[in-house]
Amino acid sequence: MIHAASLIHDDMPCMDDDALRRGRPSNHVAFGEPTALLAGDALLALAFEHVARGCAAAGVPADRALRAVMELGRAAGTGGVTAGQVADMEGEGDPSVGLAALEYIHAHKTARLVEAAAVSGAVVRGAGDAEAERVRRYAHFLGLLLQVVDDVLDVTATSEQLGKTAGKDAAAGKATYPWLLGLDGARAYAGELLAKAEAELDGFDAARAAPLRQLARFMAHRQH
Amino acid sequence: MIHAASLIHDDMPCMDDDALRRGRPSNHVAFGEPTALLAGDALLALAFEHVARGCAAAGVPADRALRAVMELGRAAGTGGVTAGQVADMEGEGDPSVGLAALEYIHAHKTARLVEAAAVSGAVVRGAGDAEAERVRRYAHFLGLLLQVVDDVLDVTATSEQLGKTAGKDAAAGKATYPWLLGLDGARAYAGELLAKAEAELDGFDAARAAPLRQLARFMAHRQH
């Protein structure tokens, strides 16, 4: 819900002004700007209500549920998505933005929310601090990987394959990983992030960690 | 924070398009639309993080804190503010909206959030269900009172007194309490709501309930 809210708001005319999302008209194109604005707000609020209500209904101890709320709140706000979007906006049209600034943007805008989802899931299931931090590092690399592959696909895939407007970053003069590292360099970096994410899983039981390993590999090799 | 977020988003060009708020340029006028959109999102997320973190730091039992998160999440989203704003938007420019529809709008857009704040405060301090529901009814009448007085002042006060654009509802062809009940009728209704709010407080210790009584009276008699 938090991710969907950020996409709906991100597509609005005053932000990225994108008419296409997941192969369909974006929210404000289909339902108008006021509805898109309110839908994003409603999804944000609903996300927190859902965690609190869902945890209570499932008998999750309240202190764990509360940690999930904190984690998600921080990731959705100034400690994550919003911070990344502000930095992204400020760097817009400035391809001279360096690798450090680009990493800041994606670590906050994307990876932080993936971390929060993973850590919340772990904490709710009773993970200790050390385990939760290992899950966080895995999710951090996974989140950056997601973005590097996104940047590569923005160059190499079609709008039809992506379900959103391709080639948009280059047209907007945005700094991207292929822009800063070259296409081969970006692909090599994706491989490096995949290896780092997988390495964090080595400490867990192999069979139970298998789905997380598959998720990371899927993220690295997806074509859309 | 939830209230501020809703005001920031409400003032944006695609919503009420209001350039003045609390006597100063509204957020998007001062900082631009993208920042206003993100500031509202960040405040929404921060609100939930704040409740979770603040309660944990203050030693509030986690199950009470979680109930506050649920209450606020529901009030900020489709169970409250957002539902009211959608209904408000649909009624815009249609002064034939009846009293029932107007009550729906304000019960959700305004009163529901006042209720959530009051009930959260009560629950966090250990109120039982019956007490919390009495606090909710008090806050419900208080929230409607706030709106009726707002509508009256929109007609009778100046922009300078209000710190926001006066006469805006009439100009927008919005249904308001003075429109539906007349100015005297709206004032009489405000008096009725004040009496109902105060009546809910009769069940509480008089000295401890005094601030809530004063708050209701202030809300009824304020000039700005």
TrEMBL record, chains A, B:
It comes from the Eukaryota. Keywords: Isoprene biosynthesis, Magnesium, Metal-binding, Transferase. One of its GO terms (biological process) is isoprenoid biosynthetic process. GO terms for molecular function: metal ion binding; prenyltransferase activity. GO terms for cellular component: cytoplasm. Belongs to the FPP/GGPP synthase family. Gene3D superfamilies: Farnesyl Diphosphate Synthase. The keyword Membrane does not apply. Its cofactor is Mg(2+). This is Uncharacterized protein.
